[in-house]
Design brief:
Largest sheet of chain B: none
Structural class of chain A: mainly alpha
Radius of gyration of chain A: 20 Å
Structural class of chain B: mainly alpha
Helix content of chain B: over 70%
Number of strands of chain B: 0
Low-confidence stretches of chain A: 17-49
Strand content of chain B: under 5%
Largest sheet of chain A: none
Order of helices and strands of chain A: HHHHHHHH
Shape of chain A: elongated
Order of helices and strands of chain B: HHH
Distance between the termini of chain A: 27 Å
Largest interface: A-B, 11 and 16 residues
Strand content of chain A: under 5%
Number of helices of chain A: 8
Oligomer: heterodimer
Shape of chain B: elongated
Radius of gyration of chain B: 14 Å
Chain lengths: 155, 88
């Protein structure tokens, strides 16, 4: 995979510098399906951009511009993070938890717990969820869908 | 008149609004507690707020409920004022 990254960077040298940043994104996207066989955990995602940044040959590194940003969200990563946060919540039994489990009907939580869960999601993803929409989110699947809508994640 | 797990169709409009208001107060309280500087204090306050709300979850007397709501609002204002002072 390292050689593929290098080839892409070297190839992008020929193109005008304006397209270098998009070439980097293309490299990242190309690396993603290659890494599909690895478990797509959030940790792996965060490791990948850093590792790409350290790709060797200093001259290539100088000309390949790297912009700082969080790793792109996918439905899969959103779902993993939501389930991870829910498993950490002490009132939820991790064995019974599934993406379709309703907080109140299946997991036996009440509205105060639901408020806490939505606050935890706000902390995890770093953006505010207004009250009106927060009270409607009653299962992990709905939360994932809402976040995907808000963050314009490719569906 | 409870913040309970009953389907919301069982509540009247007034009760429904009150429930929403109380959940809003709980939310604001949790948001304010987030801004407290020390982690230990934050945990203590979060547990305190949780216990308070849960303990009075099944109150039925409307006067008692209103009193508790205004008490919660007072606590919230106090907390916000102390945080503003601490920051300045």
């Amino acid at each position: 995979m390292a050689s593929r990254v290098l080839l892409q960077c070297v190839r992008s040298l020929g193109r005008p510098s304006l397209r270098l940043s998009s070439a980097n994104l293309a490299v990242r996207a190309a690396a993603a399906p290659a890494a599909a066989h690895r478990p797509l955990s959030f940790a792996a995602d965060s490791r990948r951009p850093r590792w790409l940044g350290r790709s060797p040959i200093p001259s290539v590194g100088v000309l390949c511009r790297q912009y700082g940003d969080l790793p792109p969200l996918t439905l899969e990563t959103i779902k993993d993070r939501v389930m991870y946060v829910l498993k950490l919540y002490d009132k939820i039994n991790p064995e019974k938890l599934q993406t379709s489990s309703h907080f109140m009907k299946d997991l036996g939580l009440d509205s105060l717990d639901q408020v806490e869960i939505i606050m935890a999601m706000e902390d995890e993803f770093g953006f505010e969820i207004p009250d009106a929409e927060a009270e409607k989110l009653m299962s992990p699947a709905e939360i994932v869908q809402y976040i995907a809508d808000k963050k314009d994640v490719y569906e | 008149m409870t913040i309970s797990r009953l389907p919301t169709a069982a509540l009247s409009l007034k009760q429904f609004l009150q429930r929403q208001r109380i959940l809003g107060i709980y939310r604001n309280m949790l948001k304010t507690i987030r801004q407290v500087p020390s982690e230990g204090d934050r945990k203590y306050l979060r547990d305190w707020a949780r216990d308070e709300f849960k303990r009075n979850k099944s109150a039925t007397n409307p006067d008692a409920i209103r009193m508790m709501v205004s008490q919660a609002n007072n606590h919230l204002e106090e907390l916000q004022k102390s945080l503003a002072l601490a920051r300045s």
